[in-house]
Amino acid sequence: MAIGETASRGVRVATASLAATLLAITGCTTALEPMEPGSFYRIAADRIGGAPGTILRSEQMAGAPAGTSAYRVLYRSTGLKDEPIAVSGIVVVPEGVVPDGGRPVIAWAHPTTGVANRCAPTLTPNVFKQIQGLPEMLALGYVVAATDYPGLGTPGTHPYLVGVSEGRAVLDSVRAARNLAEAQASGTFAVWGHSQGGQASLYAGQLARTYAPDLKLAGVAAAAPATDLAQLLRDDIGTKGGKVLTAYALWSWNRVYDAPLGPVLDPAAKPTVDAISADCIENLGEDLAVARLESRINTNFLHGDVTEIEPWKTLLAQNATGGAPAGAPVFLAQGTADETVRPQVTFQFAKSLCETGTPVRFDWLPGVNHDRAAAVSAPTAVEWMQGRIQGLAAPNDCRRLPPPPNVASSG
User: Fold this and answer.
1) How many Å apart are CA 16 and CA 12, to the nearest integer?
2) Taking Cα atoms as reference points, which of 326, 319, 323 lies closest to residue 80?
3) 4 — phi, psi (to 5°)?
4) For residue 159, which of 224, 80, 230 has the smallest C-alpha distance?
5) H-helix or E-strand containing 56?
6) Distance, CA of 205 to CA of 214 (rounded, Å)
7) Most confident of 34-43, 142-151, 243-252
């Protein structure tokens, strides 16, 4: 049954299916609705001062994991036009003895939650449960910084899957952790992300040397990262969830880049795209069903191949993660049952990293789909990051990358 059928029952069944698909895409397994952003997230442009990572506002949060304290922070970052912007996030600080030089930091980069301002993880009641590997990271004495990304929580358009925007926000979350007195954080850090957050982590690694030379990057870990965006859209456009991710990108990039929708989007689908983009993953199915939207998102909601139409083709290539050294050793985890980020795409990305001389640890997750990739790989990823933070030699699978189960080894 297609999404958005005109019969009332059809709309409800289709949107319920869409919501279920999106849960699989994003790893969100609860239906807790985010709050609306309050005054904490709003600040006048002329008050966004200081260097990137400067804390503009902070408050202690309730519900932090036992033995820790957590702080919601509003910090200064840099927009796509190099302008000062405010970004929200959280910093979680473990108890215990602070090592000489301060506590290392791990920056978590979250998967897709939506593109509306209220889709920020810090606005959800279960924000701590969304950070994969949080207990393990805190047990090692690491400070954990988790950005919302620009435009989530804070006003403005979220630059969805825009690598430079995400990467800067991740790096500045580490700086914010250092600037939070209670954290007593050092400049040594690693980054760890899933899906959209995998892209963010990889971009943070690529940008670290030039954008944040004051920090010491130890390693980059990513589970099922969004790397080749054009291939991602081609693979997913025939699926319910993939069509929604495409809608998010169209809606966001139309505003961020002023990329025209006319050449790529069926006008009849625009109201549905706008409605989807106004809501968050957790509440998407419910809201569409209540609104009884009769527009349909089907395989014909785009004009031709968006990956071949300018300026979309160039923008997709511009935000791909391949072709540049990662800035530090890399850990990649990929589920073999992933139908969103296809195993072959991540495998090819790993090969491209190896060609830049980057040491790569590559782990296949047998039978694991997209939503479970970070949860399943988190213990191994955290152990790998611990080794990099300790300065141990990075394991390297580049001499013989383990191919996907259905791809023969090249020898």
Assistant:
1) 6
2) 319
3) 75, 30
4) 80
5) strand 55-60
6) 14
7) 142-151
Question: Are 147 and 170 contacting, i.e. CB atoms less than 8 angstroms apart?
Answer: yes
Alpha-carbon separation of residue 55 from 6, 125, 145, 233, 372 (angstroms): 49, 23, 13, 36, 33
Give the CATH class of 39-228+320-400.
alpha beta
Q: Per-residue confidence at 260, pLDDT binned at 50, 70, 90?
A: very high
Phi-psi label, residue 184: left if phi above 0, alpha if psi -120 to 50, beta otherwise: left
Please tell me the predicted confidence (pLDDT) of residue 231. 94
**Token couple for 166:** 């995400």
Token duo for residue 410: 């090249």
Per-residue pLDDT tens over the stretch 332-349: 999 999 999 999 999 999
Structure tokens of 230? 């054009």
Identify whether the C-beta of residue 31 lies closer than 8 Å to the C-beta of residue 64.
Answer: no
Residue labelled with tokens 């080794």: 387
Domain span(s) for CATH 3.40.50.1820 in the chain = 39-228+320-400
Q: Which two tokens stand for residue 311?
A: 């300026």
How much is the average pLDDT of 37-57? 95
Structure tokens at 369: 């789909």
| Helix intervals (H) in 116-221 | 134-139, 163-179, 196-211
Query: What secondary structure does DSSP assign to 258-310, as a single string?
Result: ---STTTB-GGGHHHHHHHHTSBGGGHHHHHHHHT------TTSBSS-GGGST
Query: Which residue pairs from 208-211 have beta carbons closer than 8 angstroms and sit at least 24 positions apart in sequence?
Result: 208/171, 208/327, 208/328, 209/327, 211/52, 211/78, 211/167, 211/168, 211/171
Q: Rounded to 5 degrees, what are φ and ψ at 275?
A: -65, -45
d(C-alpha 245, C-alpha 161), whole Å: 10
